[in-house]
Amino acid sequence: MQRYSHYGASYAPPPPAAPVEEIHAEPEEVYTEEEEEPLMEEEPLPEVQQTGGAKEEEEAPERQEPVVQEAEGKASPVESKNGKKTEAAGAAAGGGGAKYSMFTWFVVLALLGVWSSVAVVYFDIVDYDSVIGKLTAYDTDGDGDFDVEDAKVLLGLKEAKRRTVGGSPEERTVQEKSEPVSETANQRAAEQRDSEEAGPESATASAPDDEEAAGSQDVESEIQAAVPLPPFVEDDFVPDDPRDFAHSHEEETNTIDTTGVLVEEPRSEESLVESGRYPTSSKVTQEAEAEDRPEPEPEPRGESAPGGVQEAAGTSEQQLQEKLREKAKKKKPKLFNKFDKTIKAEIDAAEKLRKKGKVEEALKAFEALVQRHPQSPRALYGKAQAEDDVAEKQRSNDLLQKAINTYREAAELPDATPDLLRAALKRRAERQQFLGRMRGSLATLEKLVQSFPEDVGLKNDLGVAYLLLGDNKGAKKVYEEVLAVAPSSGFAKVHYGFILKSENKIAESIPYLKEGLESGEPGTDDGRFYFHLGDALQRVGDDSAYHWYELGHKHGHFASVWQRSLYNVNGLKAQPWWTPRETGYADLVKMLERNWKTIRDEALAVMDQSSGRFIPEEENLREKGVWGQYTLWQQGRKVGTSCQGVPKTCSLMERFPEATGCKRGQIKFSVMQPGTHVWPHTGPTNCRLRMHLGLVIPKQGCRIRCTNQTREWEEGKVLVFDDSFEHEVWQDADSYRLIFIVDVWHPELSQHQRQTLSPI
Predict the structure, then answer these.
(1) Alpha carbon 14 to its chain's center
(2) Residue 330: pLDDT band by 50, 70, 90 thresholds?
(3) Could you tell me if 739 and 670 are in contact, meaning their C-beta atoms sit under 8 angstroms apart?
(4) What whole-number distance in Å separates Cα of residue 644 and Cα of residue 632?
(5) How confident is the model at residue 339 (pLDDT cuts 50, 70, 90)?
(6) Angle at 509 between CA 506 and CA 511, to 5 degrees
(7) How far is CA 225 from CA 296, 438, 558, in A?
(8) Which of 34, 363, 406, 554 has CA 20 to 30 A from 322's CA?
């Protein structure tokens, strides 16, 4: 059974060395404090000291020399008989001195004015926006400012000019002829006056700082590949909020990994291997917080346009939905109720600190607001956002859990606006998923869907939550409901197609996966969907599969058309077939080939005495036939008591930690009966190489293809290949084929990487 798996990424202290970067995640939006530029060093102004008039000027003539030369642009002064300097132009001594002093004062005042203007702008002494906004209220002639003409009108000395202001800049009629720049300024001033006349609700809806649905993007990585994890720290684990479990799924109590490092939903045995292959991408599960998904509106059917002209019959349903979606995105959420508007200035001040990246100061400001106004939903929501930001900055799970609780408190207040309720609960669900609280996230999303039953986006998120829990049936029901009301939803289509393919309904899944990818909707451009569409097309014999693999490669999901693993470390050597010397594990290969009969005999004994130890392959990779596996190590750990049946084999393997410690691989026996065909497929990661030791190989009919090269096994010999490349197996012999599979770390991975990579 295929699972839509998810790996949590809760905060943990940084490891001793830099963690491995497996993928290039989309940059997260982090509010950082603006760096202040160093204060400008003022150059000494000799003119400022000249405050004594003509008399003082005569006592210090040398200080004025550069001013006169620079300002007047005249010839250099020459000395007179009494030793005083005079202008070379021949001006009289008395007249020249007075003229010199007046010009100096003019220069001094001009420079003072310039420096004062610079200081006002640089140090932001005057809030020009507010001043201009207030003065435009007295703008009677429509020129965008307050001037002498406006004052005359206010004093009754002049009659105001009549003007017509429409609802939009295009509707305004300006009586006076002006330049294009002036006309634009008039339109902007008129727009501002219209917004003031519309009342506080209109002004509130247009305030950019406070109407954001959320403060920052979710920090969770786009998991196209497994994310390197820091060392285990027990103190980082944060328990669930008990109130999250008043839910139908509360009986499932042992599904959250308590390590606090890799928060992962435990997988059932029947889907253990498959679930690792399909990591969750944040492109599918997350959206930018500032853009809430629109509430779907009834699609116009047979309605007329405002001008009475009916819409063109060729307009597709998808285009109509896109228009509605764009229209809804333009609407800014209303987060302020009537009481919140009375303290809007205080909320704005705290929010401004948060937007500037001063998150600790913002948190203190919001905490003070909540203490004074505990019934303010907007203040509580701001506090939750600030706690969220500080948790991100400090990488604190404890503080993030506080933010999750505060989001709930804000949503539970009776006077919370619908937009605030939606924003708070949606962000809460995202942060719960980040901490691995999948059931809590599901409960939050179910509450959201109950509150906003017409919101298709929220239902899509709910379907993902079911998939993350491995509940494909629950997810399928949700997406069937979505497609019933929004049949062109690309997001719902790709997920519904994924579910159908996991049910082995190959042909049925293809149109949903294809149409969903072609829609280009957010959340559809994901490697898993290209992977499954191509795989489904291959299974029905459609060569267009490689077209979709190529698109997936161009979009950055696959390393190449052949190498389509999703859990990757960049920069590793990539080739389908390897020699023992190239791997660096020649000793391991020699040990296997020298002891192949011992290993074979133990495997045969297990097959004869307890054939039930060989479990059928459950990854849905077979077209036909019988394929059984007996696993000794998985994810770097022994599997139960499996080594008791083959003690010598396990004893030999324990000397090679590159195999037994490979957390992204397995050590197992594989038996394949005649008539078996394994579909073309790829492994989940490029972090391992796979060795096949031939134990019982029929003379003809057994072969394996990796990319475009096909080889056959030999008894007592080892084949080494990279299973992240496409490979396919045929068993057309008359008897069974038995091999020993040993996965080893890719030789170019460092010791630190091997320790920090998450298991698969």
Answers:
(1) 21
(2) low
(3) yes
(4) 10
(5) very high
(6) 125
(7) 34, 20, 10
(8) 554
- What are the tokens at 431? 């942060």
Q: Is the pLDDT higher at 665 or at 201? A: 665
Q: Count how many residues are written for the chain.
A: 760
> Given pLDDT bands bounded at 50, 70 and 90, which one contains residue 319?
low
Beta carbons of 325 and 522 less than 8 angstroms apart: no
Q: Which of 300, 291, 307, 292 is nearest to 321 (CA)?
A: 300
Whether the per-residue pLDDT at 95 is higher than 90: the answer is no
CB neighbours of residue 632 within 10 Å: 22
pTM of the complete model beyond 0.90: no
Asked if residue 467 lies in contact with residue 528, where contact means CB atoms within 8 angstroms, the answer is no
How far the first Cα of the chain sits from its last, in Å, is 16
pLDDT band at 67 (very low <50, low <70, confident <90, very high): very low
Number of H helices, E strands in the chain: 29, 15
Q: DSSP readout, 135-197?
A: HGGG--SSSSS--HHHHHHHTTSSPPPP-B--SSGGG-B--S---HHHHHHHHHHHHHHHHHH
Average pLDDT, the chain: 74
Three-state SS sequence of 664-704: CCEEEEEEECCCEEEEEECCCECCEEEEEEEEECCCCCEEE
Structure tokens at 411: 């949503």
Question: Is residue 291 pLDDT above 50, yes or no?
Answer: no
H/E run at residue 719 = strand 718-721
Written as six digits, the tokens of 106 are 């003019």
Residue among 498, 628, 378, 414 nearest 4 (CA) = 498
Instruction: Label the pairing between strands 577-578 and 718-721.
Output: antiparallel
Cα gap 272→270, rounded to integer Å: 6
Rg (CA), the chain: 37
- Please state, in angstroms and rounded to a whole number, the distance separating the CA atoms of residues 726 and 731: 17
Residue 125's pLDDT is what?
63
- What is the amino acid identity at position 526? D
Is 85 or 123 the better-scoring residue by pLDDT? 123
What pLDDT was estimated at residue 197? 41
Cβ neighbours of 595 (radius 10 Å): 15
CB contact at 8 A, 689 and 749? no
Q: Are 136 and 116 in contact (CB under 8 A)?
A: no
Which amino acid is present at 170? E
Tell whether the model's pLDDT for residue 57 goes beyond 80.
no
Query: Can you tell me which residue has the tokens 């007295």?
Result: 138
Q: How far apart are CA 734 and CA 700, in angstroms?
A: 9
